[in-house]
Amino acid sequence: MKTVIQRVRRAAVQVEGEIVGAVDHGLLILLGVGHGDTLSEAKWLAERIAVLRIFADENDKFNRSLLDVEGGALVVSQFTLFGDAVGGRRPSFIKAAPPEIASPLCDRFVEFLKAAGVKRVETGVFGAKMLVELENDGPVTILLDREPRAEDK
After folding, report:
1. 152 — pLDDT class (breaks 50, 70, 90)
2. Domains and CATH numbers, the chain
3. pTM exceeding the 0.90 threshold for the entire prediction
4. For residues 126 and 77, is the Cβ–Cβ distance under 8 A?
5. At a CB cut-off of 8 Å and minimum separation 6, what does 152 contact?
6. What are the CA-CA distances from residue 60 to residues 54, 64, 65, 81, 141 (Å)?
7. Where are the alpha helices (DSSP H) in 52-138?
8. How far is CA 44 from its chain centroid?
9. Strands 72-77 and 121-123, sheet pairing
10. Strand order in the sheet with 130-145
11. Residue 98 has what DSSP assignment?
């Protein structure tokens, strides 16, 4: 699984002109699921993101987590995180998991975030054409992934 985590002042996602998910102060999490990803990767990433210290304290140091600042999380599925643009001029997405695998793992990732203590978790709509709007705070953008591990299967 791969994530792009952006610290935001606000973020919203629209589908067909309607806002389906939005947060103030917190994180926008773009989430990609690859072949071989399991619940283990989803749980590890969710728990890691909840406690990742990327919010400033009173001394402007990265010492606070999403849990510490009681921020929200907007999770948007994004298979394009597995795009391979090394060869040719059009990216290949064959490393992305098919929807029947990716959609349930995205749902479980959201559940794991909530179980980790994130009080407000919003989402986009899996497989829909979405318009994502955000105000990146900092800007702070972190790439975080976890490859499937043999011992987890």
Report:
1. low
2. 2-143 (3.50.80.10)
3. yes
4. yes
5. 38, 40, 41
6. 10, 10, 13, 31, 17
7. 66-69, 99-115
8. 12
9. parallel
10. 121-123, 72-77, 18-32, 2-15, 130-145
11. P
Verify whether residue 14 is a known catalytic residue.
no
Report the alpha-carbon distance of residue 37 to residue 30 in Å, rounded.
Answer: 16
Q: Which of 55, 78, 109, 112 is catalytic?
A: 78
Q: Cα dihedral angle (133, 137, 141, 142), rounded to 10 degrees?
A: -120
Which of these, 50, 33, 29, lies nearest to 113 by C-alpha position?
Answer: 50
The predicted-structure confidence for 29-85, as pLDDT tens digits, reads as follows 999 999 999 999 999 999 999 999 999 999 999 999 999 999 999 999 999 999 999
Which residue matches tokens 């695998």?
A: 101
Is residue 44 within a helix (H) or strand (E), and if so which, with residue range?
helix 39-51
Closest CA to 48 of 151, 153, 148, 146: 146
Rounded to 5 degrees, what are φ and ψ at 145? -140, 170
Contacts of 130 (CB under 8 A, 6+ apart): 13, 14, 15, 20, 76, 124
Which of the following is catalytic: 6, 55, 79, 123?
Answer: 79
CB 45 within 8 A of CB 144: yes
Q: Is 6 a catalytic residue?
A: no
